[in-house]
Amino acid sequence: MQRLLLSLTTLFACLLCASPLRAEVGVGAAPPAGAEMLIDGSREMLDEKWTYWQGPGFASSLPIKWKIVEDPVDEGTVLMSHDPVSAGGKYGTADIVTKKPYRDFRLHIEFLVSKPGGNSGVYLQNRFEIQVLDGDKTKHGMGAVINETESPYHAYNGAGKWNAYDILFRAARFEDGKMVQKPLVSMYFNGKKVHENVQINKVWGGPRSGVDGGNDGGAGITDSPQGLKLQSEGHDVRYRNTWIKEVTLADADTDFNE
Protein backbone atom coordinates (compact mmCIF):
# COMPACT_ATOMS: atom_id res chain seq x y z
CA MET A 1 0.00 0.00 0.00
CA GLN A 2 2.84 2.41 0.80
CA ARG A 3 4.30 1.88 -2.70
CA LEU A 4 0.84 2.52 -4.18
CA LEU A 5 0.41 5.80 -2.30
CA LEU A 6 3.83 6.98 -3.41
CA SER A 7 3.01 6.02 -7.00
CA LEU A 8 -0.24 7.98 -6.93
CA THR A 9 1.59 11.03 -5.64
CA THR A 10 4.15 10.65 -8.43
CA LEU A 11 1.39 10.53 -11.05
CA PHE A 12 -0.26 13.72 -9.86
CA ALA A 13 3.15 15.41 -9.85
CA CYS A 14 3.69 14.20 -13.41
CA LEU A 15 0.36 15.72 -14.44
CA LEU A 16 1.74 19.10 -13.43
CA CYS A 17 5.26 18.85 -14.78
CA ALA A 18 6.58 20.15 -18.10
CA SER A 19 5.95 17.12 -20.26
CA PRO A 20 3.54 15.87 -22.95
CA LEU A 21 1.30 14.74 -20.06
CA ARG A 22 1.01 18.24 -18.62
CA ALA A 23 -2.44 19.20 -17.41
CA GLU A 24 -3.08 22.50 -15.69
CA VAL A 25 -5.28 22.87 -12.63
CA GLY A 26 -7.71 25.57 -11.51
CA VAL A 27 -10.46 27.60 -13.14
CA GLY A 28 -10.07 27.73 -16.90
CA ALA A 29 -7.75 24.72 -17.20
CA ALA A 30 -7.76 23.32 -20.73
CA PRO A 31 -8.06 19.59 -21.38
CA PRO A 32 -4.84 17.71 -22.18
CA ALA A 33 -4.44 15.45 -25.20
CA GLY A 34 -6.69 12.43 -24.98
CA ALA A 35 -9.21 13.98 -22.58
CA GLU A 36 -12.95 13.76 -23.23
CA MET A 37 -15.09 16.88 -22.84
CA LEU A 38 -18.26 16.23 -20.80
CA ILE A 39 -19.75 19.70 -20.30
CA ASP A 40 -19.16 22.48 -22.80
CA GLY A 41 -22.29 24.54 -22.13
CA SER A 42 -24.29 23.08 -25.01
CA ARG A 43 -27.56 21.17 -24.97
CA GLU A 44 -26.15 18.85 -27.61
CA MET A 45 -23.35 17.62 -25.34
CA LEU A 46 -25.71 17.28 -22.37
CA ASP A 47 -27.98 14.96 -24.35
CA GLU A 48 -25.09 13.11 -25.98
CA LYS A 49 -23.00 12.41 -22.87
CA TRP A 50 -25.47 12.35 -19.97
CA THR A 51 -28.68 10.72 -18.77
CA TYR A 52 -30.57 10.49 -15.49
CA TRP A 53 -29.44 8.06 -12.81
CA GLN A 54 -32.54 5.96 -12.31
CA GLY A 55 -31.84 4.97 -8.73
CA PRO A 56 -34.44 4.08 -6.08
CA GLY A 57 -35.49 7.72 -5.59
CA PHE A 58 -35.68 8.71 -9.26
CA ALA A 59 -38.72 10.90 -9.98
CA SER A 60 -37.97 12.86 -13.18
CA SER A 61 -38.14 11.84 -16.84
CA LEU A 62 -36.14 12.21 -20.02
CA PRO A 63 -35.22 14.45 -21.70
CA ILE A 64 -33.05 15.89 -18.94
CA LYS A 65 -34.76 18.86 -17.26
CA TRP A 66 -31.50 20.55 -16.22
CA LYS A 67 -31.14 23.78 -18.20
CA ILE A 68 -28.54 25.44 -20.38
CA VAL A 69 -28.31 29.06 -19.16
CA GLU A 70 -26.10 32.11 -19.50
CA ASP A 71 -22.81 32.13 -17.65
CA PRO A 72 -23.38 34.67 -14.83
CA VAL A 73 -19.70 35.72 -14.80
CA ASP A 74 -18.19 35.18 -18.24
CA GLU A 75 -19.44 34.89 -21.79
CA GLY A 76 -21.13 31.75 -23.05
CA THR A 77 -23.56 29.21 -21.64
CA VAL A 78 -23.34 26.72 -18.80
CA LEU A 79 -25.32 23.85 -17.26
CA MET A 80 -27.69 24.57 -14.34
CA SER A 81 -28.35 21.72 -11.89
CA HIS A 82 -31.89 22.49 -10.76
CA ASP A 83 -34.59 19.99 -11.72
CA PRO A 84 -38.08 20.85 -10.38
CA VAL A 85 -38.64 17.40 -8.82
CA SER A 86 -35.63 17.82 -6.52
CA ALA A 87 -36.92 21.03 -4.90
CA GLY A 88 -36.60 20.94 -1.14
CA GLY A 89 -33.43 18.85 -1.15
CA LYS A 90 -34.92 15.64 -2.54
CA TYR A 91 -31.58 14.06 -3.47
CA GLY A 92 -31.52 11.11 -5.83
CA THR A 93 -34.65 12.23 -7.67
CA ALA A 94 -33.00 13.93 -10.65
CA ASP A 95 -29.25 13.34 -10.58
CA ILE A 96 -27.52 13.07 -13.94
CA VAL A 97 -24.78 10.58 -14.78
CA THR A 98 -22.52 10.07 -17.77
CA LYS A 99 -23.57 7.34 -20.14
CA LYS A 100 -19.99 6.13 -20.21
CA PRO A 101 -18.53 4.37 -17.15
CA TYR A 102 -14.99 4.97 -15.85
CA ARG A 103 -12.47 3.21 -13.62
CA ASP A 104 -9.29 5.26 -12.99
CA PHE A 105 -9.38 8.83 -14.22
CA ARG A 106 -8.23 12.42 -14.01
CA LEU A 107 -11.19 14.83 -13.79
CA HIS A 108 -11.52 18.60 -14.12
CA ILE A 109 -14.86 20.19 -13.23
CA GLU A 110 -15.85 23.82 -12.69
CA PHE A 111 -18.87 24.89 -10.64
CA LEU A 112 -20.57 28.05 -9.41
CA VAL A 113 -22.98 28.12 -6.45
CA SER A 114 -25.45 30.88 -7.28
CA LYS A 115 -26.76 31.61 -3.77
CA PRO A 116 -25.58 31.06 -0.18
CA GLY A 117 -26.36 27.53 0.99
CA GLY A 118 -26.42 26.12 -2.53
CA ASN A 119 -26.00 22.34 -2.63
CA SER A 120 -24.98 19.78 -5.25
CA GLY A 121 -22.27 17.12 -5.42
CA VAL A 122 -19.75 15.43 -7.71
CA TYR A 123 -19.89 11.63 -7.49
CA LEU A 124 -16.87 9.65 -8.61
CA GLN A 125 -17.99 6.37 -10.17
CA ASN A 126 -21.54 7.30 -9.06
CA ARG A 127 -20.44 6.20 -5.58
CA PHE A 128 -18.05 8.56 -3.83
CA GLU A 129 -19.11 12.16 -3.29
CA ILE A 130 -16.92 15.23 -3.41
CA GLN A 131 -19.24 17.71 -1.76
CA VAL A 132 -20.47 20.98 -3.24
CA LEU A 133 -22.19 22.77 -0.35
CA ASP A 134 -21.80 26.47 0.32
CA GLY A 135 -21.42 27.48 3.97
CA ASP A 136 -20.52 24.04 5.37
CA LYS A 137 -16.99 23.58 6.70
CA THR A 138 -17.48 20.13 8.23
CA LYS A 139 -16.76 16.63 6.92
CA HIS A 140 -20.04 17.02 5.05
CA GLY A 141 -19.02 20.39 3.63
CA MET A 142 -17.54 22.07 0.59
CA GLY A 143 -14.72 20.13 -1.06
CA ALA A 144 -14.76 17.28 1.45
CA VAL A 145 -14.41 13.68 0.40
CA ILE A 146 -17.70 13.28 2.14
CA ASN A 147 -17.44 11.93 5.70
CA GLU A 148 -13.80 10.99 5.06
CA THR A 149 -12.01 14.38 5.28
CA GLU A 150 -12.59 17.84 6.67
CA SER A 151 -13.76 20.51 4.26
CA PRO A 152 -10.89 22.46 2.65
CA TYR A 153 -13.10 25.53 2.85
CA HIS A 154 -10.13 27.88 2.79
CA ALA A 155 -9.68 27.10 -0.92
CA TYR A 156 -13.27 27.99 -1.87
CA ASN A 157 -13.79 31.17 -3.91
CA GLY A 158 -17.30 31.64 -2.53
CA ALA A 159 -20.84 31.81 -3.92
CA GLY A 160 -21.30 33.63 -7.20
CA LYS A 161 -17.76 32.78 -8.36
CA TRP A 162 -16.35 29.94 -10.42
CA ASN A 163 -14.47 27.17 -8.64
CA ALA A 164 -12.58 24.14 -9.94
CA TYR A 165 -11.91 20.63 -8.71
CA ASP A 166 -9.02 18.72 -10.28
CA ILE A 167 -9.29 15.12 -9.18
CA LEU A 168 -7.20 11.99 -9.62
CA PHE A 169 -9.16 8.86 -8.77
CA ARG A 170 -7.96 5.29 -8.43
CA ALA A 171 -10.78 2.76 -8.31
CA ALA A 172 -10.99 -0.05 -5.79
CA ARG A 173 -9.11 -3.22 -6.69
CA PHE A 174 -10.51 -6.72 -6.45
CA GLU A 175 -9.15 -10.26 -6.44
CA ASP A 176 -11.41 -13.30 -6.71
CA GLY A 177 -14.43 -11.08 -6.23
CA LYS A 178 -13.17 -9.52 -3.00
CA MET A 179 -11.95 -5.96 -2.54
CA VAL A 180 -8.25 -5.95 -1.68
CA GLN A 181 -7.52 -2.21 -2.08
CA LYS A 182 -9.95 0.59 -1.33
CA PRO A 183 -10.40 3.52 -3.72
CA LEU A 184 -8.04 6.49 -3.45
CA VAL A 185 -8.50 10.13 -4.41
CA SER A 186 -6.23 13.19 -4.63
CA MET A 187 -7.57 16.65 -5.37
CA TYR A 188 -6.66 20.24 -6.13
CA PHE A 189 -9.28 22.88 -5.24
CA ASN A 190 -8.82 26.11 -7.19
CA GLY A 191 -5.20 25.18 -7.82
CA LYS A 192 -4.40 24.27 -4.20
CA LYS A 193 -3.69 20.69 -3.24
CA VAL A 194 -6.24 19.79 -0.55
CA HIS A 195 -6.45 15.97 -0.59
CA GLU A 196 -3.63 13.51 -1.16
CA ASN A 197 -4.21 9.76 -1.48
CA VAL A 198 -7.36 9.78 0.65
CA GLN A 199 -8.70 6.28 1.15
CA ILE A 200 -12.47 6.05 0.70
CA ASN A 201 -14.05 3.48 2.97
CA LYS A 202 -17.66 3.26 1.83
CA VAL A 203 -20.52 4.73 -0.17
CA TRP A 204 -22.14 7.22 2.19
CA GLY A 205 -25.78 8.28 2.12
CA GLY A 206 -27.67 5.06 1.47
CA PRO A 207 -29.12 3.59 -1.72
CA ARG A 208 -30.48 6.94 -2.98
CA SER A 209 -26.99 8.41 -2.86
CA GLY A 210 -25.20 6.21 -5.38
CA VAL A 211 -24.42 2.77 -6.76
CA ASP A 212 -23.71 0.24 -3.95
CA GLY A 213 -25.08 2.61 -1.31
CA GLY A 214 -27.55 -0.04 -0.27
CA ASN A 215 -25.01 -2.87 -0.04
CA ASP A 216 -23.95 -3.62 3.54
CA GLY A 217 -24.44 -0.05 4.68
CA GLY A 218 -22.40 1.23 1.76
CA ALA A 219 -19.39 -0.95 2.52
CA GLY A 220 -20.34 -3.52 -0.11
CA ILE A 221 -18.63 -1.90 -3.07
CA THR A 222 -18.81 -3.96 -6.24
CA ASP A 223 -16.22 -4.42 -8.97
CA SER A 224 -17.76 -2.34 -11.75
CA PRO A 225 -16.91 0.92 -13.49
CA GLN A 226 -19.60 3.59 -13.21
CA GLY A 227 -20.31 7.04 -14.60
CA LEU A 228 -19.54 10.45 -13.22
CA LYS A 229 -22.65 11.76 -11.47
CA LEU A 230 -23.81 15.29 -10.62
CA GLN A 231 -26.41 15.81 -7.93
CA SER A 232 -29.61 17.83 -8.15
CA GLU A 233 -30.64 19.09 -4.70
CA GLY A 234 -33.17 21.72 -5.77
CA HIS A 235 -30.55 24.49 -5.91
CA ASP A 236 -29.06 26.61 -8.68
CA VAL A 237 -25.52 25.26 -9.03
CA ARG A 238 -23.90 25.70 -12.42
CA TYR A 239 -21.26 23.61 -14.19
CA ARG A 240 -18.94 24.27 -17.12
CA ASN A 241 -15.58 23.22 -18.63
CA THR A 242 -15.76 19.63 -17.43
CA TRP A 243 -13.45 17.02 -18.90
CA ILE A 244 -12.11 13.62 -17.99
CA LYS A 245 -9.10 11.57 -19.01
CA GLU A 246 -9.01 7.84 -18.45
CA VAL A 247 -5.74 6.58 -16.98
CA THR A 248 -4.45 3.23 -15.83
CA LEU A 249 -3.00 3.18 -12.33
CA ALA A 250 -1.36 -0.20 -11.88
CA ASP A 251 -0.04 -1.37 -8.50
CA ALA A 252 3.50 -0.18 -9.11
CA ASP A 253 3.37 1.59 -12.46
CA THR A 254 1.31 4.75 -12.76
CA ASP A 255 2.11 5.98 -16.25
CA PHE A 256 -0.73 7.11 -18.48
CA ASN A 257 -2.09 4.69 -21.02
CA GLU A 258 -1.65 7.01 -24.02
Automatic annotation (TrEMBL):
Gene3D superfamilies: Exo-inulinase, domain 1 (2.60.120.560). InterPro entries: AL/BT2_dom (IPR010496). One of its GO terms (molecular function) is hydrolase activity. Residues 207-220 have a biased composition (Gly residues). It comes from the Bacteria. The keyword Signal applies. Residues 206-229 are annotated as: Disordered. Residues 1-23 form the signal peptide. Keywords: Signal. Residues 61-245 form the 3-keto-alpha-glucoside-1,2-lyase/3-keto-2-hydroxy-glucal hydratase domain. This is 3-keto-alpha-glucoside-1,2-lyase/3-keto-2-hydroxy-glucal hydratase domain-containing protein. It comes from Roseimaritima ulvae.
